[in-house]
Amino acid sequence: MSDANEMDDLIKAAAAAYNVPRTIPRDEMWAVIEAAQSKRAADQATAPKLYVVPPGVAASDSIPRASSVTHDTSTKSHRVTWWAMAAAATVLIAAGVGIGRWTTTGGNGGRNQPAASVAAATIVPPAIVSPIDSAIDATSDGERSSFPAEA
Amino acid sequence: MALPVPQVRGGLSERQLVARVVAGEPTAQRELYETHVDRVFRLAFRLAGDDELARDFTQLTFIRAFERIGDFRHESSLSTWLHAIGVSIALNGLRKVKTARNREAPIEAASGIGISRREAEPDLKTRLAAAIDSLSEKYRTVFLMHDVEGFTHDEIGTALGIPVGTSKTRLFQSRAKLREALADFRGEWIS
Description:
The complex is a heterodimer.
Chain A: H1 3-15, H2 26-46, E1 50-52, H3 59-62, E2 69-71, H4 75-104, H5 116-122, H6 131-141
Antiparallel strand pairs in A: 1-2
Chain B: H1 14-22, H2 26-48, H3 51-68, H4 78-97, H5 117-134, H6 137-148, H7 153-160, H8 164-181, H9 186-189
Helix pairs in contact in B: 1-2, 2-3, 2-4, 3-4, 4-7, 6-8, 7-8
């Protein structure tokens, strides 16, 4: 055995005396744990609960039953509630955007009406459009009647 | 010093005991507590070096464990799972309370006095305690868990959330630091 290994063994043996508890207060600690458990149970019992009742079932019948889905204030239920709230918020925002678009297009989904933004984009200030450019545009659209007069 | 992992009393399997605790049986909670409390408390005391802190850490460990026992998936042993909670609570607690002991005192400060063999034993314990205290948290925790409390590297890895190789490296380095701190005892010990 090398010196290092031998010394490790000796250190290990000596370290067994490092921070050794004299006694283990099992009963005292259990009393504290039990009290904490009781307090938690009492807190849960007094916390408001949300009962989710299946459709078609009278609330008065379903609430006391163990079979009804119960959301209390435990951590897991909080998580479920937050997910539901987030989903509801997403649906609400999507509905708002949809209604907004629907109203701007007059309720026909924009099928019969050119989009205002596209129309605006094709309006070019006359000062910077040369007659040749205009003629090319008109040709491509097949609108020969709008040809400007040749200079 | 390797200590035996506690066995569940009364011949019940760990799964059965956990199932009873999840079902809310108070006797099962007590049984689980009695089975594991000694080892949890001993490790808490080794880490904290203080009775009050060790009590607080142990109590909190079991309170948390009973709260979360429904999430226990038997991917590790119940003992390992409990110690993962316990070590986490103890280390976080120690960081917060900043115990009076100055763990960061340089190892060199504790060395350098030549002594006779007859006087070696009490001084060795003092010097070793100072050297262990001076180890940084990550080395100290692995050294105490492995060499003093007898945890395996697998258990340490799970409890601390580190790979087994890291646990081995930290143990190797902590032993090297302790050997260095106690180098002047070499002649006394090895002859």
